[in-house]
Design goal:
749 residues, mainly alpha, 5-stranded antiparallel sheet, two-stranded antiparallel sheet, flat
């Protein structure tokens, strides 16, 4: 690390600045202004542009001429000012203030420049500090980003904003963290994690699987009470990087951070880790909502409904069992009053039955721990289950057998009739990570034998499917759809058609044309290299024939070449399911649709595609014929090889060239007789030179003994009247022989 350019005993910074000569500040301002111009030019023009080179040269000139007496030039970045070798630069210049804010948000505390820095090194440095904050965070911080840049004459020091993410304080080793007391951890985080941007740095890294960042997440949530203080500090923080913000905006930031925490926890690899940290997060939110209500609401900073949304949006997403643990632990941590507990239950978005079950679970836990007071017991007693409808008391208690042929949704059942498994799992099915619950939901469907209960589970699966498709979580949607289709087959022998109707209706909806049209619109927005495209194709595979039909119809109607390529890629990945529908497009009147269909069949590469591709060989457009021959060659069956070799003697020069190329690629010895005829003494001087060259190179690719004999003969080709062509033939033949290890042949002059 470069040393700071200070010497002697320590002095008061303000008095030190006062003693700086005015010209030092002016020189610093001039240097910073030139850096700002270079940054702007790098954004506006290509890296090698003359304007960029001139701007970089001006920075280097100011660095070497104005600071020749200084060993190093140190730019120290603060939130609202920038100093150059200790002197404040551009104190009233808005451009310098903007640069300060930009560098501060990117976690840059200090930039040290050596006079020997080159223009190329300076360009790399400026490009790095121009990157977006989230890109810098994703790369592990600005220091990590510059490690591979080979910048020898400059150094950047990260600010405390990124030290929590990539510094030594919480990242030294697994042995350091246990030694830190809780208050020491919160002191670090309160000082260094005062803005949402810093949280983003950490949690984005967790979602990308960074082990060190996961370790820090454990440290932050190890003590829910301390994490609550951290969130309060964030919510009540008056001065932010973006200058003044209103109280409502602060709460929005807090909600954003809570969502980031939840997403990061969901990305952890172990279920035990996720469960423990979810519980700690719930306890943190409970403490937060209890503490900031009096400070925010009473002061009139935010409406009460905003605070309710903190609880309802976060706490209501937790499974009931985990939320009960969190509520019980919250009493041990904070000793919350009965009125606070009552506010929690009012803000939770749960059904009456779920609230009642939650209250009973909390009562048991508090009773076991000896913390259940009469006031708390009275609050919990208020949470009663939903009363049965009028006339329900007259229904004979006990299970009611479902009537065969009667609509399941019309059948009444007594309290407690539902299977215990379903009641235990109902809260779990509302977990925030629905994709993880799909296997459990499908398992419930498979083992449920009561049609009424089965219909309720189908409704839950239907809601999951809607959510998955809305969020474009096609991987989870494909798993659930396949499971629902298998469920129809399994229940055919056990349920009547009427009892299966809810499940059939749900599945048919996801296979219907309106749904397929919406998916086609989604496809147009994707890139074939993206993960979203691959997941959508897997969903098409689960849908089956309806998806293939929709894709093929779109192929004929779509005018955008980009979208047609996406459709081709999707149909090719669907494989044999697509062959019959795609083959119909071989006779389409639009030549480009035919070529697309031929390309898809070639990519599928199954032997049954050959007969459809063979039809396209007679198409009027050479582009279609070439694509068909390419597809046939890719299949490499005996029939395909015969078709390719048969085109070696065609009068169509373009198709002949294509056939020679594919025969070479296939290393097809069956092509040797036709190649020998093309290169015979009576034909070789008449044929197109390009065909002769391709044919000789094809012999080299085939490389059999017969091919080598033909090449040896051609290496001695001679003609009195065609000297130039004969010389070219010999050279190509010699090169082909050398390519297969026959180095003893020399060209005849």
């Amino acid at each position: 690390m470069y040393p700071a350019n200070n010497s002697g005993k320590q002095q008061n910074p303000s008095s030190l600045e006062a003693r700086k000569k005015p010209d030092t500040a002016d020189k610093g301002t001039a240097l910073v202004v030139r850096i700002i111009k270079a940054l702007k030019d790098l954004r506006l023009y290509p890296a090698g542009n003359l304007i960029v080179n001139e701007s970089l040269g001006q920075v280097l000139q100011a660095l070497r001429e104005s600071f020749s007496a200084d060993k190093l030039v140190e730019l120290h970045v603060e939130k609202e000012r920038l100093t150059v070798n200790g002197a404040v630069a551009g104190a009233k210049d808005p451009r310098v203030s903007e640069l300060c804010l930009s560098l501060y948000k990117r976690g840059i505390q200090k930039i040290v420049l050596d006079h020997a820095i080159s223009a190329e090194e300076l360009k790399k440095l400026l490009n790095a500090i121009s990157m977006k904050p989230e890109e810098i965070a994703g790369a592990g911080g600005i220091v990590n980003l510059l490690k591979t840049s080979r910048i020898a004459h400059a150094f950047i020091e990260e600010s405390a904003e990124l030290l929590i993410v990539d510094g030594d304080n919480l990242a030294s080793s697994a042995n350091v963290l246990p030694e830190l007391e809780g208050l020491e951890i919160i002191d670090l985080t309160l000082d260094e994690l005062s803005t949402p941007e810093t949280f983003d740095h950490l949690f984005v890294r967790v979602e990308h699987g960074d082990p060190a960042s996961m370790h820090r997440l454990h440290a932050l949530l190890r003590s829910p009470a301390l994490f609550t203080q951290l969130l309060e500090r964030l919510a009540l923080h008056v001065e932010k990087v973006e200058e003044q913000v209103d109280a409502l905006r602060r709460v929005e930031y807090m909600l954003k951070i809570l969502n980031k925490v939840g997403a990061a926890i969901a990305a952890l690899p172990l279920e035990s880790e996720r469960a423990q940290l979810l519980k700690n997060l719930a306890v943190s939110v409970l403490g937060l909502s209890a503490n900031i209500k009096s400070e925010l609401v009473n002061q009139g900073l935010v409406p009460n409904m905003i605070l309710n949304s903190v609880e309802s949006n976060i706490l209501s997403r937790f499974p009931t069992s985990e939320l009960a643990d969190a509520l019980a632990e919250h009493f041990e941590v904070s000793g919350a009053a009965a009125s606070v507990l009552q506010s929690h239950f009012r803000s939770l978005v749960l059904s009456k039955n779920d609230k009642s079950a939650l209250a009973q679970a909390v009562r048991r836990k508090l009773s076991d721990s000896g913390t259940l007071t009469p006031a708390i017991d009275a609050v919990l007693a208020e949470e009663k289950a939903e009363s049965p409808p009028a006339g329900r008391e007259e229904i004979e208690q006990g299970p009611i057998r479902p009537i065969q042929g009667y609509p399941p949704e019309r059948i009444l059942f007594a309290e407690g009739e539902r299977s215990s498994l379903m009641s235990e799992m109902s809260a779990e099915l509302a977990a925030p990570v629905m994709g993880d619950m799909v296997p459990a939901l499908l398992e419930l469907l498979r083992h449920e034998t009561i049609p009424t209960n089965h219909a309720v589970l189908v409704a839950r699966a239907d809601a999951y499917m809607e959510k998955f498709l809305e969020d474009r979580r096609y991987e989870s949607a494909s798993v659930l759809l396949k499971g629902m289709q298998e469920e129809i087959e399994q229940k055919k022998q056990k349920f009547s058609l009427l009892q299966l109707k809810p499940l059939r209706t749900a599945v048919e909806d996801y296979l219907g044309e309106p749904r397929m049209r919406r998916l086609m619109e989604t496809l147009k927005e994707l890139n074939k290299e993206s993960a979203g495209f691959e997941k959508l194709v897997r969903y098409f595979d689960a849908v089956g024939a309806p998806a293939v039909k929709a894709l093929v119809n779109a192929l004929g109607d779509e005018e955008s070449r980009h979208v047609r390529l996406l459709i081709c890629q999707a149909l090719a990945q669907l494989g044999e399911k697509s062959i019959a529908a795609v083959a119909e497009k071989v006779d389409d009147p639009k030549w480009y649709v035919v070529r697309n269909a031929v390309s898809i069949l070639g990519q599928i590469g199954k032997p049954q595609c050959v007969r459809h591709l063979r039809r396209a060989l007679s198409h009027g457009d050479i582009r279609v014929r070439r694509e068909a021959l390419k597809g046939i060659a890719a299949i490499r069956t005996d029939e395909a090889i015969d078709i390719v070799c048969g085109h070696l003697n065609t009068a169509d020069v373009d198709m002949c060239k294509a056939a020679i190329g594919w025969a070479a690629a296939m290393e097809a010895e069956k092509a040797l007789p036709a190649l020998e005829r093309l290169l015979s003494d009576e034909n070789i001087w008449k044929e197109d030179e390009a065909i002769v060259r391709l044919a000789i190179e094809a012999l080299g690719s085939i490389g059999s003994e017969h091919a080598i004999r033909l090449l040896r003969k051609l290496s001695h080709a001679h003609s009195i009247f065609r000297l130039r062509k004969a010389s070219s033939i010999r050279a190509i033949a010699v090169a082909a022989l050398r390519g297969i290890g026959e180095d003893t042949i020399s060209e005849r002059n």
